[in-house]
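Let us begin with a simple case.
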Amino acid sequence: MRRVPALTALLLLVGLAGCGTRTPSEESQVRDTLVTFARSVERRDYQTLCEKVFAPKLLRGLEQIGLPCEVAMRRSLGRVKNPKLTVGKVALVAGGANAEIRTSADNQAPSSDTVELAKVKGRWQVSALAGVKRPRAQPTP
């Protein structure tokens, strides 16, 4: 009779061992995409940007004017020295996500922007640059 409780406990432990493989949260997945975005910009890895980070929706505009994504990235980032992209607040919204990013580079003013992300075939991808955040005017005394 004592074997039944021991066997039950063993089966429970084996069952719980498989529970450690949880899927990362949506926010975590969005942040992972943005980390890939940042690393790809810093390393000038245009192929990763174009094939994994940017959503097809974002690439359509380039396709319409006949400019391959990698060529466009090379033109826009080619002369930029030490590009950096940092991720701020991430918000999940209906149909996607918005993320605040800050970009900087040598001899250029830093910029704060918002990017939109969409889930495409189970993966989060950057779908649009939503807008630039302008610094707020400081009240004068």
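The second case is a distinct protein. As before, the sequence precedes its structure tokens.
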Amino acid sequence: TGAALGERGVVLAPTHDGGTAALLRIPYNVIPAAFGAQSAARHAALAAHADVPFRELVLPSLHFDIDEPRDLETLFDSSQAGTHTRRALLEISEKSTACNRSS
């Protein structure tokens, strides 16, 4: 996708809540990086203002952004969590439960 942009452009993978999961900028300083809520929309606006090509790719593997504990629950309950991710989340949950019981 980056090669299709040529010498300048922006490719973004948004999160489910309007954030940015992945950002490719060609060159790296073609636009500044934006952070926080609704950063995907800010990146799109920055690219438009800089008059550079912009592509948004919705990628299921990057769609969830883990910012808060409830985000882990959402990811775990979704079909988006791969087997390795699901196994790691189960291990974390089991260890957390064991620690809470021994406290």
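The chain has a mean pLDDT of 84. Helices lie at 2-5, 39-49, 69-77, 83-102.
Keep these points in mind for the review questions at the end of the chapter.
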